[in-house]
Automatic annotation (TrEMBL):
Protein name: TetR/AcrR family transcriptional regulator
Keywords: DNA-binding
Secretion signal, residue range per the UniProt entry: none
Organism: Bacillus lumedeiriae
Gene3D superfamilies: Tetracycline Repressor, domain 2
């Protein structure tokens, strides 16, 4: 690594670690450029030499809290006997962690980050490569994808190859699972429901499981065509 890259990486870590401390102590909503600068020991203007907007800083800091999820994900999917079980277990793990830490997962998967958010994920793992240690190769492609539908679809393709669902239903199932999660997640994030995170995860997984397990009973493409007429 060149001297300039080392210096930049060091500065990024100062600001990301400072932001992570604020999130841990006060919550995501309390993060401001001034607070980050004060905690890191620099002035606010210096931050903008490394981060174009505060949402990127929050995103990078939130990635530091994703390690428990990524570690859990591998263990969850090991319990699956086939690709369909692995798909449902991956969602179970995601629901558990996202409902337990909604502010973090909002910053990671929903907050507007501008163009090319996947580049931010690549940049993060360049700075913190140790976060990828012990992550199975088959899961790394998921971790580098921020788009929820694409994450879901990549696992569903293995489910289709084993004959559990029809190829023409992959996109519909992927979209529906994300919409089910997003509906509950939005309600929890905005305090519209009084479920604790375990109850919210259980209810969401019931809906997802029912929809996926009965996917071949319904002809999604046919139903969509009828609705569009």
């Amino acid at each position: 690594m060149k001297k300039k890259e080392i210096q930049m990486s060091r500065m990024w870590k100062y600001f990301i670690d400072a932001t992570a401390e604020i999130i841990e102590e006060e919550g995501v909503e309390s993060v401001t450029i001034r607070k980050v600068a004060d905690k890191a020991g620099y002035n606010s203007a210096t931050i903008y030499n490394y981060f174009t907007e505060i949402s990127h800083l929050i995103f990078f800091a939130s990635m530091k809290f994703l390690k428990n999820y990524t570690s859990d994900l591998g263990e969850y999917m090991k319990k699956g006997k086939d690709p369909l079980e692995k798909y449902l277990l991956s969602w179970e793990c995601f629901c558990k962690h996202s409902f337990q830490h909604p502010d973090i997962f909002h910053a990671l998967f929903i907050m507007d980050l501008g163009d090319h958010p996947e580049k931010l994920i690549e940049d993060y793992y360049k700075i913190y490569p140790n976060d990828l240690i012990n992550i199975p190769e088959e899961l790394k492609s998921i971790l580098f994808e921020r788009n929820m539908s694409k994450r879901s679809r990549s696992v569903l393709e293995a489910v289709e190859k084993e004959g559990f669902i029809k190829e023409e239903n992959i996109d519909s199932i992927s979209e529906l699972t994300v919409l089910i999660w997003y509906g509950m997640f939005t309600n929890i994030l905005n305090n519209r429901m009084n479920y604790d995170f375990e109850e919210a995860a259980k209810i969401t997984m019931n809906y997802i499981s029912e929809m996926v397990l009965h996917a071949n009973v319904f002809d999604f493409q046919k139903n969509i065509s009828v609705q569009q007429q």
